[in-house]
Amino acid sequence: QGLTIKLKKDVSVEEIENIIAGHNEWVKVIPNDRQISSRELTPVKVSGTLTVPVGRIHKLNIGPQYLAAFTVGDQLLWGAA
To answer: Which positions ≥6 away from 57 have C-beta within 8 Å?
Structure first.
């Protein structure tokens, strides 16, 4: 799932990653690296687990308070089906 996030103020990507990582035990922040993202942000990687990886976190060009992120999770375990 792709996310576009608008914050009330400009916050560094590093701070956002720390906030997301500390939110709960299931969230796993994935470094913004092509090889790692390709390996970790896939349905196959999280199938059968409660892990929710969040990655590809980066600022958007439309303003300093806009971020993009990508996440994936096993929707059958989380009850979204």
So the answer is: 13, 16, 17, 20, 29, 32, 67, 68, 69
pLDDT in tens, 25-79: 999 999 999 999 999 999 999 999 999 999 999 999 999 999 999 999 988 887 7
Helices in 41-79 by DSSP H: which ranges?
43-46, 75-78
- Whole-prediction pTM value? 0.85
- For residue 61, give both structure tokens: 């060009």
Written as six digits, the tokens of 32 are 């913004």
Measured over the CA atoms of residue 37, residue 3, residue 49 and residue 12, the dihedral's sign is positive
- Enumerate domains of the chain plus CATH numbers: 2-78 (3.30.360.10)
Structure tokens at 27: 């969230």
Amino acid residing at 75: Q
